[in-house]
Amino acid sequence: MSNNNPQSGKCPVMHGGNTESGQTNTSWWPQSLNLDILHQHDTKTNPLGDDFDYASEFNKLDLQAVKSDLKALMTESQNWWPADWGHYGGLMIRMAWHAAGSYRIADGRGGGGTGNQRFAPLNSWPDNTNLDKARRLLWPIKKKYGNKLSWADLMILAGNMAYESMGLKTFGFGGGRADIWHPEKDVYWGAEKEWLASSDNRYEDVDDPSTMENPLAAVQMGLIYVNPEGVNGKPDPLKTAAQVRETFARMAMDDEETAALTVGGHTVGKTHGNGEESLLGPEPEAADVYEQGLGWNNHTKRGIGRDTMTSGIEGAWTTYPTKWDNGYCHLLLNHEWELKKSPAGAWQWEPVEMKEEDKPVDVEDPSIRRNPIMTDADMAMKMDPSYRKIIEKFYHDFDYFSDVFARAWFKLTHRDLGPKARYLGPDVPDEDLIWQDPVPTVDYQLSDEDIAELKLRLLDCGVSAQELITTAWDSARTFRGSDYRGGANGARIRLAPQKDWEGNEPERLSRVLSKLQALQATLDKPVSMADLIVLGGTAAVEKAARDGGVNVTVPFVPGRGDATQEMTDEASFEPLEPIHDGYRNWLKKDYQVPAEELLVDRTQLMGLTAPEMTALIGGMRVLGTNHGGTQHGVFTDRVGVLSNDFFVNLTDMANTWKPAGKGLYEIRDRQSGELKWTATRVDLVFGSNSILRSYAEVYAQDDNNDKFIADFVKAWSKVMNADRFDVQ
Predict the structure, then answer these.
(1) Are 43 and 133 in contact (CB under 8 A)?
(2) What is the pTM of this model?
(3) Is 335 considered catalytic here?
(4) Most buried one in 420, 478, 510, 717, CB count within 10 A?
(5) Cα–Cα distance between 608 and 631 in angstroms, integer?
(6) pLDDT, block means (10 residues), the chain with 728 residues
(7) How far apart are CA 390 and CA 38, in angstroms?
(8) Considering 98, 266, 414, 580, which one is annotated as catalytic?
């Protein structure tokens, strides 16, 4: 029965239908493949429109005017959220730091490059308490400069200007961080269901930080780095030192950079714990509408100024917290420290004895002196032998420390911006840094005739078409749109560590590269190996289409350079090693995560959509490019011909599909029982998943072979050019 009486009191809205609170498909069928991350930043979420070009807008910006406005803001204290000591520097630095500091090297995700701190979950992390206030303080500047200055760039630049306003000579600034307009759903922050759950959840053995779950870097859900009170909130500086070392290494920092960032970050500003946490309102995502996007508000007591609550630890680290000086090292090394509880009940270290004049003044009343504090991570700098040695060097050479910190801060805030070619603005440093993965520029030109001749010579150089395609693919597939690292530019597939990666089939790769190098030596014009590798794959794809009766031209833009081993930080490239590649039907070993989920994750990192993934899988299979030459998923009798056979045979109901053990499946003729092909989960998911099957059926249609080839070529070109920031 239904009740259509408008007076019945029934709500006319389908509850859950317009939010994520309702039952989703994955709630009903949790094992189904979730493709959401492949279209999470659909253009429909962007209010600026498809034609908006942030780079061109940023280049119109008067950066010096912005910097002046930011420096002025630092000391223009606002009553609704007053500045400590009349200076917002510490708050702005923490905002920039926590935006950039979420980066991790394992998958390149996180970081300040998208302005993601504006959205959940980061905007409501316990470690980001009151950073909503910092962003709101910046709103007048964002409003003034509008589309020419993204939130992502503004937050990082605000941190830079905070340091400069307090006396640090920063290393530089590069703009170019375009904002996103929807939370990033692709970042795995951990499996915990509650904030600040025990660190034990992330480690096989919490006493061995190297056992932290990959790709995570922070020690607890809702933290940027480590727990400032100690491991699981229990002070022990040496245990904390081990966690600091591991978590900063996972954020691409060595011991010296880690120590410099700790010292420099705590040279200015303070922690806040002079209040009652229980009086704080909910975080921004849980706050009522009248809070207007602000969280952690205290409507019972004052809750601002000296009564502010964030971490629960209370106090400044140095005597002069708004001045860039060597006070941190001086106080840390020259005083004894003892454990105490803050007014909010958090563990912190305070000096056993200190002259009154060495204590920082109260944030509101300069006639009152307060004890400085150190966190457990600060005490780790003193008690860990390696860190202690570095800290002492900083203490005795302030200029050296300032330079190391300025460079480490630049790395922290720019690591996920990618290669230097993406940096915008007049403050970009001239120096090339190894962590920027430098690639030499080339100055040669290739005419259409040159390219056509090179294609013929590549196809006749003693390397099969399949080998040309796989080498080009393996060179380009390392690209990560998360931090813009990897890709074919630089031809680092020739260098350690990439030349020895199992996924690159080192023996085959070495033979192919030697043939290409021999060809390169005979050329009248200089052509980089990077261009030859990509052009070889291009020529082979065109040949494969021609062999099927379709003439296509795969776009090719020369201009890639060849990196050298000296330009390559081997350790930082190790996380880019492919340990699976569904496009070449390969897994390094069996994983708990299903192969199709690994494929989707890799696809998202490469910046591809679900339809592009589908076209590439179908093409790579029929081209015969599987790792090790396996025949799984090669649903064609014309191996090496670019055709839609993969989809035709996958969707053919004359076939049956049966498990064959060890993650493999058999495809047999339904009537005769004859074995026709074998397949992996990656192959069959394109027939089993309803969304992917809808794409597969499009390509299987009798009238869509040409469309499939055109779509494959377009997706192939996207992969080959993903790192060509000079031509994008």
Answers:
(1) no
(2) 0.95
(3) no
(4) 478
(5) 25
(6) 48 55 76 88 85 97 98 97 98 98 97 97 97 98 98 98 98 98 90 94 96 96 97 97 98 97 98 94 97 96 95 98 98 98 98 97 97 98 98 98 98 97 98 97 95 98 98 98 98 98 98 98 96 98 98 97 97 96 96 95 97 98 98 98 98 97 95 98 98 98 98 98 90
(7) 44
(8) 98
